[in-house]
Every structure is written in structure tokens, then in C-alpha cells.
Design goal:
This protein folds into two domains: about 80 residues, no CATH class; about 130 residues, no CATH class. With about 230 residues, it is α+β, with helices and mostly antiparallel strands. α1 runs antiparallel to α2, α1 crosses α6 and α2 crosses α3. Helices cover about 45% and strands about 20% of the residues. Bound molecules: zinc ion. The site of zinc ion has 8 residues, from loops.
Length: about 230
Amino acid sequence: MSYLVAKSMIRAKTAFRGLPVPTAIALSCPHCHEFLTYSCRDYLYHAATQTITFLGTCPACSGKVSFWQVNSRDGEKSQIFMYPAAAHQHQVIPGIEYVPQPIAENYREALQTYHHRYYKAATTMVRASLEDIFKTVLGDGEIKELAALIQELAQKNNLTEQVTDIATTIADSPQLLAYLTFDNKPSQDTAAVLLKLLEFILSYTYVLPAAIKRLQHEISCLEQAGETE
Ligand SMILES: [Zn+2]
């Protein structure tokens, strides 16, 4: 739940009094919870605070949202707030910068198609991401060996029993594979579970090991600083 409009949400801009303002903002509507593009209008400039206020309307439910663009004259510091806040959205996992580029792209696409309610497309991208992880971690492998992948990852990263428990749960779940191989049509709930599964694997394969390395480096820097004092 956020009141801040991220720059990536702005789809189109125009100029108002010589200042850039959005004309279209993609967000999860706080009224109908659809992910879509709000159109903006009724801009007003408040000189004393360099604030531009405007109105956004949902194309699906006609619900209204108020926007405030602060620091309008400074492109760097300019920020847009909204009320009511956008409906909760499944956010990109923290540490995505540690995930290899092609896998991260597939994952972002899985999230985007999920937000647009294309659950089959989301599942396709989850599957593509998992297959890429197979290639980078195991060299090869098939989607049917998902449980084996998790176990191998757990061994490689020396993870705890919980990971093995998840692998066992996956191995015992023919339904999961039925969704990934499209024998069953994915619903929102199943697409959400598959996304979470992918995020779990991304976190343990790329993000956590990188975070551990960074922490080790920071600790050794502390020790070196201590020695020179
Ligand atoms: Zn709406």
C-alpha cells in the first residue's frame, strides 16, 4: 500500500505551465482493484509550494484519485503522491539486482502479466524463469525435475531443513506440475502461488548468497578498520 507514484507508473506526459505533468498513470485502482491506466486532468498550480494538483479517473469504474506533484520545478526531486493509495500489488522482490538479467526480465514479465490478470501468460513466464534457473544452476534439466532442482539448490547453498520440506511438498504435489505443464488452467490463486514459488527460488539462488557475501565483506571491512585504529 503506497501513496507515492513511482516514475515507472507514468505512461504519458504533457506540459502544464511549462512543467511536465502525467496524463496517464498505470496503477491498481483503489476502488475496483483492477490494474489499468488512469487518465489525468484538471491541473492546478500552487506557486508558493511549487505543487501541481490534478485528478485521475479510472477507465473501468470511474473512481477518482487526487494527485499532488511536489517540487514540480526540479526534475530530480519532483515526486507525485496520490490519495486514496493504490490497491495492494504484488511487488518485485528486494535484491532483484542480484538475479541474472534474462531471468529477472522473465520474472518481471510474469509479475506484469499477473497484474494484468493474464494468468496463463504469467504461468508461462514463471515456467520460462524456472527453466533458465535450471540451465544456470544445474546445466540442464526439465520442469518435471522441479523438486530435484530445489533439493540441489538447498545442497549447493547449504540451506536448512525448511527448503527440503518445501521440495518434499512440491514432489508430493502433482497439481503443481499440472499447472506448469498447462494440463490444468491456472486461476489467479494458482498463478499467485507459482509466482511466490519462483520468488522463493530466486531469493535462495541469487539474492541470499549475494547478501551473505556482502555481509561477510562488510564484517571483514569492520575488522580491518578495527586493526588500523
Ligand atoms: Zn477502478
